[in-house]
Amino acid sequence: YQPDLSSRVSAPSRAFAPPNSQTRRRRVTPSPTPTVAPPGLVLKRATPNSSPPPTPLCPIGLAWRSTPADFLFLEHNVDDMEDDYDMDDPVDDMDGEDYLGPEARDDSDEEDDEDAEANKASDTSSEEARRGKDIQGIPWDRLELTREGYRETRLLQYKNYENVPNSAEAAMKACKSTEKDGTYYEFRRNTRSVKSTILHFQLRNLVWATSKHDAYLISHYSVLHWSALSGVDTEIMNVEGHIAPSEKHPGSLLEGFSQTQVSTLAVKDNLLVAGGFQGELICKNLDQEGISFCCRTTYDDNAITNAVEIFNTSSGAVHFIASINDSGVREYDMERYQLCKHFRFDWPVNHTSLSPDGKLVLVVGDDPDALLIDANSGKAIHSMKGHLDFSFASAWSPDGRTFATGNQDRTCRVWDARNLSQSLHVLRGNLGAIRSIRYTSDGQFLSMAEPADFVHIFDVKSDYNKRQELDFFGEISGMSFSPDTDTLFVGVWDRTYGSLLQYGRLYNYSYLDSLF
Asked: What is the residue range of the signal peptide feature (predicted)?
């Protein structure tokens, strides 16, 4: 793979399938005492001769009402997911209610106001959770359905998206057995006022922690900063309208962009990089007003920015890598905002991770095999075989030897750079693809996030034999450990129960509740 500093490349005419980032809206008249169903439930009207269902629930955010002649049936929203993530629609057709920008919602704002009034619920603290309150505020005691029963339904009916048919079923045979008895991070708080959203159903890197108290996330057209200390969320950047750089750098588009659809995000060392559906890159220094840099990486039809990673070079300079759907990986200097390297591949690149010593780049994408390349030349060093579908997540351990890849075959594979003939471990998910992977900065834990409901935290020192399972309901927009490893933030995307979950690390397995 040869380096290429050109700003435009050709690529196969292939694009990711775009999602509608919100469940199709249904209007109903709220009942006097609304009951909100857990995420993933939709209504189907019964026929006159049907027997009443045992668990009459409502769709997300809507009130439930029942009359003797009108029973409502419960069903998981697999069909709705297929409609929402219409695989035949081009990316450019994402307008109207397909995207959650304020201008696109029309009268849905009124619906959201109704939902907010009908379904007001307080945030959940660690103390309330210890007293038995559901961490997401789901009123199980008012629903004719237990949490355990609904969990079983979700596991049976959740539909994992695969590019290679039956890849997950085949991959499960290689997975190791692990003990689910660890407690490494404990629930601290669920903040319902912070609504984390996603735009692309395969891209889930939209939450970043910069300290144990601070997280950045995407909410519709806004980049928000959440402070756990003050309990206040602040809009850092809004891309709904027109934005343009306030600084002048070679290659920067002074005319800027309008209505950027943010597909991925990275925040580190007071620097923020947002990537867009049309190959946009927007860079901002969090200590300064305005936008520092804007550029369009490519004018190719397959321009979506799949992932960005900010890192420090061996000289101390701050750079970032952008993984683009045009089959390119680009590295930028964040001091001068100049393109330093451009490597091209045979398939769209979904995620890249730089080794701690800066010498190797782990590349995954629309191919079952992962690649290790030389960070300076782009030369391929080794191709790792084992996954059966496309990969969307990767991460290096701080030890510099171990790295992990996450795949739509529902597995995370852990590799040792000293022996790449086969993976060390194959870790399984419960219901879907592994969309995001993170190591703690001390290398003690690896976390992997599924598209919904589950984040798994593995104890690395146990040789990945022990794990903790974070269990909730809703699509996962992203997850991030704080740099000091004290906090894990998880973004949950859902019309009613969308929120930011916060977990705190337990040291020596003793209870720690210093924040709340």
From this structure: none
Query: CATH number of the domain at 121-193+372-515, please?
Result: 2.120.10
**385, 383, 359, 386: which is closest to 371 by C-alpha?**
383
- How many other CB atoms are found less than 10 A from the CB of residue 68? 6
Burial 179-191 (b: 16+ CB within 10 A, else e): eeebebbbbbbbb
H and E: helices and strands count for the chain? 5, 32
Whether residue 321 has pLDDT greater than 50: yes
Position 210 confidence tier, pLDDT thresholds 50, 70, 90: very high
CATH 2.40.50.180 is the classification of domain 204-344 = no
Q: What is the pLDDT of residues 429-457, one digit of tens each?
A: 999 999 999 999 999 999 999 999 999 99
List all residues 6 or more positions away from 15 whose beta carbon is below 8 Å from its beta carbon. Answer: 90, 91, 301, 302, 304, 325
User: SS3 for 353?
Assistant: strand
Q: What is the pLDDT of residue 302?
A: 87
Residue 116 makes CB contacts below 8 A (sequence gap 6+) with none
Q: Which residue in 161, 163, 15, 13 sits closest to 89, CA to CA?
A: 15
Give every CB contact of residue 377 below 8 A, 6+ residues apart in sequence.
3
CB 372 within 8 A of CB 357: no
* Backbone region of residue 290 per phi and psi (left: phi > 0; alpha: psi in -120 to 50; beta: other values): left
Residues of the chain with CATH 2.120.10: 121-193+372-515
Q: Around 20, how many Cα atoms within 13 Å sit in the side-chain half-sphere?
A: 19
> What pLDDT sits at residue 18?
33
Task: Give ranges for CATH 2.130.10.10 in the chain.
Answer: 204-344
